[in-house]
């Protein structure tokens, strides 16, 4: 088991009677990517701000590298790079000029380092465009460049793909993976985009209405997600009749593509296909699939999945 480098103990933040984060217990392992997944307003950003000491918890603790961030913030922060919302860049300066100022604030004046960081993140070192002319995606890239400039051990990134186009998202994903796999950084990343978290994270925490309702490795989460038989046949009505008469299995979904999704782990797919063929039903496609992270997320947070119209 990897060492835990970020841990929260009953971490809570309330604003009057409104509880934004409700006694959550996070565990982020060294050298991994931890995806904090939740809808907008679920409490992700508030949690990250408490981890950085930007806001004070109402209750509980946030430990980074074994130290309480509220008590030893000055010792911890040099080891962390963070992008929470958009930093206060100077609107009339270029990206390079902004990074030069941030570099000087931290006692570093290495122009080669700034050039390298900009190239890593996909921004030009020689671009004369000032920050006020940046697109949202460019601002996001510059914020992450600022976060990694001092080569921190830990990165805390709040919605890092926000504002990027599909190519930019793919590039950012590869960049973040490289930081973890090749440079050994520990990364806590938040997002409401389930596909991105699924493709990036080693461990996933699901936060909903301020509560951490799930914390699992990707492998553990795969076991928890429902398995189903996806089958394409010549006669869906005939399959439904067999399901009801022979298998007493009423839980199925008929997709718009003429496919049947059958949710019953007790059904043996080979025997099922044989029964269909014996009944004169042509099987064009069949296989065992796994519930998408999106469907699992909706299920555990009590939402309604518009794609899951089950028949019973």
Which key terms come to mind for this protein?
single chain; 312 residues; alpha/beta; six-stranded mixed β-sheet; five-stranded antiparallel β-sheet; 27% strand; disordered C terminus
Walkthrough of the structure:
The protein has eleven helices and 15 strands. With 312 residues, it is an alpha/beta fold. Helix 3 crosses helix 4 and helix 4 crosses helix 5. Helix 6 (166-181) links the parallel strand 8 (154-158) and strand 9 (186-191). It is elongated.
Topology:
Layout lengths: L3 E12 L2 E7 L2 E3 L3 E5 L6 H8 L7 E6 L2 E2 L4 H4 L3 E4 L11 H11 L5 H11 L14 H13 L5 E5 L7 H16 L4 E6 L2 H7 L2 E6 L2 E7 H7 L2 E7 L2 H11 L5 E3 L4 E4 L6 H10 L4 E8 L2 H8 L12
Parallel strand pairs: 4-9, 4-10, 7-8, 8-9
Antiparallel strand pairs: 1-2, 1-3, 1-5, 5-6, 10-11, 12-14, 12-15, 13-14
Helix pairs in contact: 3-4, 4-5
Poorly predicted runs are 306-312
Secondary-structure class: alpha/beta
Helix content: 25-40%
Give me the Rg, rounded: 24 Å
- The DSSP helix count reads 11
Strand neighbour order, sheet with most strands: 7-8-9-4-10-11
Q: Count every beta strand, where a strand is a DSSP E run of 2 or more residues.
A: 15
The helix-strand sequence is EEEEHEEHEHHHEHEHEEHEHEEHEH
The major sheet is characterized as: 6 strands, mixed
What portion of residues belong to β-strands?
25-35%
- C-alpha geometry: elongated
Distance between termini?
43 Å
pLDDT averaged residue by residue: 88
Write a brief structural summary:
Helix content is 34%, strand content 27%.
